[in-house]
Design brief:
The complex is a heterotrimer of chains A (205), B (623) and C (356).
Chain A (H helix, E strand, L loop, with lengths): L20 H27 L9 H4 L2 H27 L2 H31 L8 H32 L8 H27 L8
Helix pairs in contact in A: 1-5, 1-6, 3-4, 3-6, 4-5, 5-6
Chain B lengths: L16 H6 L4 H30 L9 H36 L7 H20 L27 H29 L12 H33 L12 H35 L6 H14 L15 H29 L8 H24 L1 H7 L3 H31 L5 H27 L16 H31 L37 H7 L12 H8 L8 H17 L1 H28 L12
Helix pairs in contact in B: 2-3, 2-4, 2-14, 3-4, 3-5, 3-7, 3-12, 4-5, 4-17, 5-6, 5-17, 6-7, 6-8, 7-10, 7-12, 8-9, 9-10, 10-12, 10-13, 12-13, 13-14, 17-18
Chain C lengths: L1 H26 L13 H34 L16 H30 L8 E7 L2 E7 L7 E5 L1 E5 L4 E7 L4 E5 L3 E6 L5 E5 L5 E6 L12 E7 L1 H12 L8 H11 L33 E2 L4 E2 L2 H9 L1 H4 L4 H5 L1 H4 L7 H12 L3
Parallel strand pairs in C: 1-5, 4-10
Antiparallel strand pairs in C: 1-2, 2-3, 5-8, 6-7, 9-10, 11-12
Helix pairs in contact in C: 1-2, 2-3, 5-10, 6-10
The chains are: A mainly alpha (205), B mainly alpha (623), C alpha+beta (356).
Chain lengths: 205, 623, 356
């Protein structure tokens, strides 16, 4: 009964806990990714205010612009939820609309990041410039890499659905992608708060 | 079911020979691959140690230059920890865990294969450094800013960084697999508190891996960026603190040492009850101790940094937490002894190694308590006293337990017993040699001999004990070679083993030696701890799972995961990609291109892997 | 066979223990870097703490070892049909053997914390404060000038301190992490770039004590040593005054030739070394050599400071200390066309021997 190859036959999982193996795997992976981003954020916080020359966060950050990109990413989490719900209902065309919307919103977020990075470089902030540059670009760059991988994943799911590859009983595939996507979004909320919002308070360089 | 437009080769069907090993997803074969590779790496690390001890056998020698010596001790440490002890543990996790929990394989067989091939890639990459410009030379702990490109031009450190990243991927993949396997694939009735202790320790270790490795992953990324892209993470001139590297490294590094010792404790916790004919005394307490050790292991990291200037408050806190962790460790030792008490003890070789482990671990643990006192540690830190301590816990602890595990599970894996007479000589040779090699290091350390020095003067008073240590080291080498001899000859022509040569207690002894590919004909229902013992002597039969009656029905209903190329291909992509990253700042566009090609190969492999079903639906018969 | 093996294990354990106690206390006492031969309050407190913990550890080892040895022998299998009672545990025992280690550790913890604080905080912050700078692979020492508060006295590799007094040392590094360790005087504290540390030391005995870098710092880490000379206050004051005085120009012909070479571009020493009193030699890459002849050793505590030692160092520093900056950085050593000949080396030796 407890076969290693428990395929997904409906809702009943033949596992010791009733949880699907791959779902558990995704949670375990997200646990490690938590520590990954936690360490990057900790490095950023430790070096906050320690750069011996500028530019400093207050010189380069534009909270209004980054708020828009944050909102875009948040909306992408909503479209992700809608995509999952659509697939479970069996509404394939809705699923496609929402999954591609999620990917497009993700790409938009990345676009904002690219433009932001370019602006910063023009203002004299690169990873080599100072501690702020090194920690900021590494943290947000690696986050952006996570978003990029997520976008590729979402696009694959979307294209897959054109070949009849996505059916309601394969909702787990989307569920796993959704977990990852939401995680990446939550990490961004933390980054936005700790790096951007705290960064522009007076007294913190 | 799904149509794939890429020209992906057909899935291997019943491959033979080398291909059967390259495409295997069977946990038992993967375990053997890990074990053999890890042992070869252990011999490599041992060879490096022999060189070190030859150089230090007498004062003022120049068998090797200081630069080569620094590479030797860096590679010795990195190899032993990441390429020998951890993968040897992984070999046992792989082979034994599914057998102990009553499963047919792990949760993700292809991920399992991937973690082995990636480990091999990391091992190869690290050792290629010897011939590609020089091995890393800044210690296994790579303190900044000595590892920066300013103080360490050349590629040795880059090899070190990238190999460790690759090995981290391998370890994480394996850890994810074992966490899900242990949580989700236990036989019916095998509650968590009925699992064998080796499984428990593996579970805890896997959780530690998942949480600890990302920390060093980030630290290594930051160091790599400093070296390749001139960022400032550990550049003092930019205001950075080298102490940050130490914090990040040791926040990983201390849980890492528990990753190294908990599986060993798990192995010993299997052997002692078996050869004492008694259940583990205080099983729940032993489990709890393991959990507490893992938890508290996160709170002690700065005891590696007592002399770096954290201040008396921090030093006091970490001294106290470090002392505290001695408590659950001691509790385990007492429980092992209590298991033996009033038992019926048989000193087969596995039991000798297990009890030898206890002796040596007591000594290593006590010298650890001496280190925990930050004030007196100021005299011990960075001396041979630490070298003594670490080798007592890592050799006297982990290695002795792994050797015990090999003697113990060898018959299950190969179907033959290792020779007991040779085994006993092996044990005594190793036990005595180990003490001759490492005990004198307590003396040289307290006599003022720092670590990581390629030579010393004759007027320091260190001559005698260094000579003794070196003699012991060569004796130890002989002991390990004797072990290898025993393993090889026993595998070829050792006495044939039954399914249950030791009158065991746990599920792996209820199936043939070696097990069939599908492990269990019928998955048992478990009703308590030590279920096989309960069946043999307690009249508690392991009622098979309903639904299979007779061999035919069994064979037709067992679907085993089929072999696959993709894990191997994905690892190749990682290997190639890492070489590209290695040379980015030296050969920029070529480096980027090679990195890109590697990444592309890996992504294609992962894509094909995700589309490939676990079992090919066209495959008619079972396995 | 199993009888011998388990009994032998017990005897072996006991033998190891006894020999370790004997050897530890007997043999290591007066070696140059022995932590047992303490000469001041800091190392003394650290040694006392070590003895205390070691004593507790020995007690634990004997007790636990004895039980393990006894168990291994007493409960050996007597017959294959042995059927020992399948005891699962004993809660009072578990509690007991959890509490006992906690108590033992508390006994260790209290003096530990007290000693940590005693050794961290200098008993006399206003005492003599010396700056020690770790560099690959030598130690620079900077003293407050005896007469001019705006100046410092700079020397290298030989630290003089007044006997019986607290001396505060500020620890820095110019490059990688080093560690400042004089085993007989005090446990080590690291020298971390960008992170100033302090240590206080005190020697209650006059004499010369060995120090060594104790944090791996690169190729020549093994050869990065220094000496500490503890002197009665009057002698220390005289020494400092002597060190503060500028060097006088060389008079004797060979030494004058040496000075010319030192300050000229053939040898180029002036670019890396400072000799106060010389207008030209103001380099700060290598040690201050103003009074180099007054030191017992050169090249950071590894070569005798006599004719032969100086000669061998100046002829081939790479031989004596592979990887050191003089060997890799100075043109006379990495360009065979520019190598100094014997006569030039003799001149330089004469000059340096005059800088006392």
């Amino acid at each position: 009964m407890a076969e290693a190859t428990a395929a997904i036959h409906g809702e009943h999982e033949e596992t010791s806990t009733g949880l699907n193996n791959r779902k558990l795997l995704m949670w375990a992976f997200l646990g490690s990714d938590c520590m990954f981003f936690g360490t990057l954020i900790a490095t950023y916080v430790v070096y906050q205010g320690k750069s011996i020359k500028g530019p400093y966060p207050i010189d380069v950050f534009s909270i209004p612009v980054t708020s828009v990109s944050t909102f875009v990413l948040l909306m992408s989490s909503m479209s992700m939820v809608l995509a999952y719900a659509a697939l479970r209902r069996g509404n394939l065309s809705s699923f496609r609309i929402w999954i591609f919307s999620t990917a497009i919103l993700g790409i938009t977020f990345l676009g904002f990041q690219v433009f932001e990075f370019r602006d910063f470089v023009h203002e004299g902030l690169t990873p080599k410039t100072n501690l702020f540059g090194s920690t900021f670009f590494t943290l947000t760059g690696l986050h952006g890499a996570h978003v990029t991988l997520g976008v590729i994943w979402l696009l694959s799911l979307g294209f897959h659905s054109f070949k009849g590859g996505m059916t309601p009983d394969k909702h787990l595939e989307v569920d796993l992608a959704a977990l990852y996507w939401h995680f990446v979004d939550v990490v961004w909320i933390i980054i936005f708060t700790v790096v951007y919002l705290f960064g522009v308070f007076p007294g913190i360089n | 079911m799904t149509t794939i437009s890429l020209p992906i080769p057909k899935r291997p069907v019943h491959p033979t020979g080398v291909w059967s090993w390259i495409t295997t997803v069977d946990h038992k074969r993967i375990g053997i691959l890990y074990g053999v590779t890890a042992f070869i790496m252990f011999l490599t690390g041992g060879f490096e140690a022999m060189y070190i001890r030859a150089q230090l056998a007498q004062p003022g020698q120049d068998l090797v230059s200081p630069e080569v010596y620094n590479q030797l001790f860096t590679m010795h440490g990195t190899t032993m920890i990441f390429l020998a002890i951890m993968p040897m543990g992984a070999a046992f996790f792989n082979y034994i865990i599914p057998l102990q929990i009553g499963a047919r394989d792990v949760a993700f067989p292809r991920l399992n294969a991937f973690s082995y091939w990636t480990f091999l890639a990391g091992a190869l990459m690290l050792n290629l450094s010897w011939v590609l410009g020089g091995a890393p030379n800044a210690g296994w702990f790579g303190y900044a800013p000595l590892t920066s490109s300013v103080f360490n031009p050349g590629h040795g450190i880059d090899f070190w960084i990238l190999s460790l990243q690759i090995l981290g991927i391998a370890s994480l993949a394996a850890a994810f697999n074992f966490v899900v396997t242990i949580i989700n694939m236990r036989a019916p009735g095998m509650l968590l508190m009925r699992m064998p202790l080796f499984t428990w320790m593996t579970f805890i270790t896997s959780l530690l891996l998942i949480l600890a490795f990302p920390v060093i992953t980030v630290a290594l990324i930051q160091l790599l960026f400093d070296r390749q892209f001139e960022t400032n993470f550990f550049v003092p001139a930019a205001g950075a603190s080298p102490v940050l590297w130490q914090h990040l490294f040791w926040i990983f590094g201390h849980p890492e040492v528990y990753i190294l010792i908990l599986p060993a404790m798990g192995i010993v916790s299997e052997i002692i009850p078996t050869f004492s004919k008694k259940p583990m005394f205080g099983y729940p307490v032993v489990v709890l101790s393991g959990v507490i050790i893992a938890f508290m292991g996160w709170m002690v990291w700065s005891h590696h940094m007592f002399t770096v200037g954290l201040g008396p408050v921090a030093n006091s806190v970490f001294a106290l937490t470090t002392m505290a962790i001695a408590v659950p460790t001691g509790v385990k030792i007492f429980n092992w002894i209590a298991t033996m008490w009033r038992g019926s003890i048989e000193f087969k070789t596995a039991m000798l190694f297990a009890v030898g482990f206890i002796w040596l671990f007591i000594i290593g643990g006590l010298s650890g308590v001496m280190h925990s006192s930050a004030a007196s540690d100021a005299q011990q830190q960075d001396t041979y006293f630490v070298v003594a301590h670490l080798h007592y816990v890592l050799f006297g602890g982990s290695i002795m337990a792994l050797l015990a595990g090999i003697y113990y599970w060898f018959p299950k894996i190969t179907g033959r017993l290792m020779n007991e007479t040779v085994g006993k000589i092996n044990f005594w040779l190793v036990f005595i040699a180990m003490n001759i090699t490492f005990f004198p290091m307590h003396f040289t350390g307290l006599n003022g001999m720092p670590r990581r020095i390629y030579t010393y003067d004759s007027d320091m008073g260190w001559d005698l004990w260094n000579a003794v240590s070196s003699a012991g080291a060569f004796m130890l080498g002989a002991g390990i070679l004797l072990f290898l001899y025993n393993a090889i000859t026993s595998a070829r022509s050792g006495e044939v083993a039954s399914a249950d040569p030791w009158d065991g207690r746990t599920l792996e002894w209820s199936i043939s030696s070696p097990p069939p590919e599908y492990n269990f004909e019928q998955i048992p229902i478990v009703q308590g701890r030590d279920p096989f013992w309960a069946q043999k002597y307690g009249g508690v039969a392991m009622v098979p799972v309903a639904g299979g009656s007779g061999e035919d029905a069994v064979h037709h209903s067992i679907h085993l995961p089929q072999p696959s190329y993709w894990p191997f291909v994905a690892s190749i992509g990682i290997f190639i990609g890492s070489f590209g990253v290695l040379y980015i700042n030296a050969a920029s566009w070529i480096g980027v291109a090679v990195a890109g090609i590697g990444a592309l190969i890996t992504m294609i492999a992962i894509y094909a892997w995700s589309l490939e079903p676990v079992n090919d639906p066209d495959d008619g018969a079972a396995h | 066979m199993s009888t011998t093996s388990s009994r032998s294990k017990a005897y072996l354990g006991g033998l190891l223990l006894l020999s370790s106690i004997a050897l530890l206390t007997g043999c290591a006492l007066d070696d140059p870097q022995s932590t047992f031969d303490t000469v001041g309050p800091v190392s003394q407190s650290q040694l006392m703490l070590f003895y205390w913990i070691f004593g507790a550890a020995v007690v634990v080892f004997i007790v636990v070892g004895a039980v393990l040895a006894y168990t291994s022998i007493r409960f050996r299998r007597k017959s294959p049909d042995d059927n020992p009672p399948q005891t699962h545990g004993n809660t009072p025992m578990e509690i007991g053997w959890t509490i006992v280690p906690v108590l033992l550790l508390a006994v260790v913890a209290v003096p530990t914390v007290m000693t940590i604080f005693d050794n961290a905080n200098s008993p006399d912050p206003g005492a003599l404060t010396v700056e020690a700078v770790g560099r690959q692979w030598w130690f620079e020492f900077r003293y407050p000038h005896p007469t001019d508060p705006d100046e410092q006295v700079v020397t290298a590799n030989e630290l003089h301190i007044p006997v019986g007094e607290v001396v505060n040392i500020n620890l820095e590094s110019r490059d990688v992490i080093h560690s400042f360790w004089i085993p007989k005087i005090a446990g080590k504290v690291d020298m971390v770039p960008n992170n100033s540390n302090t240590i206080w030391i005190q020697s209650d005995e006059a004499g010369e004590f060995y120090g060594q870098c104790a944090e791996f710092c690169g190729e020549a880490h093994a050869l990065m040593k220094f000496r500490v000379v503890a002197q009665p206050k009057a002698e220390y004051d005289a020494w400092l005054l002597g060190q503060a005085a500028p060097a006088v120009d060389a008079v004797e012909p060979l030494a004058a030739e040496g000075q010319a070479l030192f300050e000229g571009n053939v040898a180029g020493c002036w670019a890396c070394h400072t000799i106060s009193g010389s207008a030209k030699s103001r380099g700060s890459v290598g040690p201050n050599l103003t009074h180099v002849a007054s030191r017992g050793l050169i090249a950071s505590g590894i070569i005798e400071n006599d004719q032969a030692g100086l000669r061998s160092w100046l002829t081939d520093p790479c031989e004596s200390k592979p990887g050191n900056t003089m060997c890799t950085g100075a043109a006379v050593y990495n360009n065979p066309d520019k190598a100094l000949d014997e006569k030039q080396i003799s001149a330089l030796v004469a000059y340096l021997r005059g800088l006392d």
